[in-house]
Design goal:
With 344 residues, the protein is of the alpha+beta class. It has nine helices and 17 strands. The strands form five sheets. A seven-stranded mixed sheet has the order 3-4-5-15-7-17-6. A three-stranded antiparallel sheet has the order 14-8-16. The radius of gyration is 20 Å and the shape is globular.
């Protein structure tokens, strides 16, 4: 599969590197079983857009959206009655469901899962027999599946991003501060016109030790704020930037620049009606209408509320074949994914 940009209108690109890293055997077996063509190398990488203006055009239109959780039976009886065990991992965030295969969920169970994710922020399923194609099909039930303009993907399955720290360290060598993985608190795709909703991460290869992922609850972070402080940030907007920079076609000599878009600091989830704090230290740039000093003071305090209150966090230890589904509108996460091969 020859590299190509994700939009045909993008003509100025950088050719991606070709990978030679051998696949871990669990990942290779899963992909072959799913009929994925590995003959032309793995993973597939699209041609990377060179210019900022082209990337701004990706998904730059209002797209109709109905949250699947808003359609669900509030009791979630179809989902819970089919499970053998349902465990809330902490008071505020994280639920593990046993005895269900994601590929077999009925439409009613899918909607109820979306509502559970909206309420508990992140939901875990171990021992999943799941192909990349089935993972994508489930994602399409929840909404439009994002196809990233430059991250590696499963060949022939657009939108199935490959998270492989050993691969990433070939581009940016690991060090003692960044041993691999997303070694910082973040939310996905905050720079999009309509930022990401549900993310589904499936791990088929995990290290014998380490590799945990942490999530922190935006609902509970908001509830940690005093009523008077909430009045300060309710209705405020902030500027959020992309993870990857691009050149400005009008001024390429100025160096790489990030995609920036404006979104509310506090989001209201469409399925629950609950308010969630929505900031992250990696990609929230400034609060609109405040000068830098004022914005920095408030943002640094909000980051600390999220990051330093361990009672609103869940830390999950992966096992092979596990899926986690979380709502990016409600959480920040930190992935210590050294040695893993994952898909989302």
């Amino acid at each position: 599969m020859a590299p190509a940009p994700i939009l045909g209108s993008i003509v100025d690109t950088i050719e991606p590197r070709k990978e030679t890293l051998p696949l871990p055997e669990p990942a290779r077996q899963r992909l072959l079983k799913a009929g994925i063509d590995l003959s032309k190398g793995y993973p597939y990488r699209p041609s990377v857009p060179l210019y900022l203006q082209d990337v701004y055009k990706i998904r730059d239109e209002e797209r109709p959206y109905q949250d699947a959780g808003a359609r669900a039976d509030k009791s979630k009886k179809n989902l819970f009655s089919a499970a053998t065990k349902v465990t809330d991992l902490t008071t505020h965030i994280g639920t593990e469901i046993e005895g269900l295969q994601l590929k077999d969920l009925t439409p009613q169970q899918r909607d109820e899962l979306a509502l559970l994710i909206a309420e508990r922020s992140v939901v875990f399923f171990r021992n999943q027999d799941l192909t990349p194609q089935q993972q994508k099909e489930l994602g399409e039930w929840f909404g439009e599946v994002e196809v990233h303009p430059q991250t590696p993907q499963v060949p022939g399955v657009p939108g199935m991003t490959v998270i492989w720290p050993d691969l990433f360290t070939l581009e940016r060598p690991a060090d003692f501060r960044r041993p691999g993985g997303a070694s910082n608190w973040h939310s996905d795709l905050v720079h999009e016109r309509q930022p990401a909703g549900i993310t589904h991460l499936h791990n088929d290869t995990v290290p014998p030790t380490g590799g945990d992922t942490l999530w922190a609850s935006g609902y509970s972070a908001y509830e940690k704020l005093s009523p008077e402080f909430r009045k300060i940030i309710d209705g405020k907007y902030a500027v959020y930037r992309s993870a990857h920079p691009y050149l400005d076609r009008q001024d390429p000599n100025a160096g790489p620049k990030y995609i920036e878009r404006t979104h509310p600091l506090v989001r209201v989830h469409p399925a629950t009606g609950w308010k969630a704090l929505w900031v992250n230290r990696s990609m929230t740039v400034r609060i609109v209408g405040l000068d830098k000093a004022e914005s920095d003071v408030i943002l640094n305090y909000l980051y600390d509320v999220y990051e330093k209150n361990v009672d609103i966090q869940v830390r999950f230890k992966w096992t092979p074949g596990t899926s986690a589904l979380w709502d990016n509108r409600l959480v920040i996460s930190w992935s210590c994914t050294v040695g893993m091969v994952t898909y989302r």
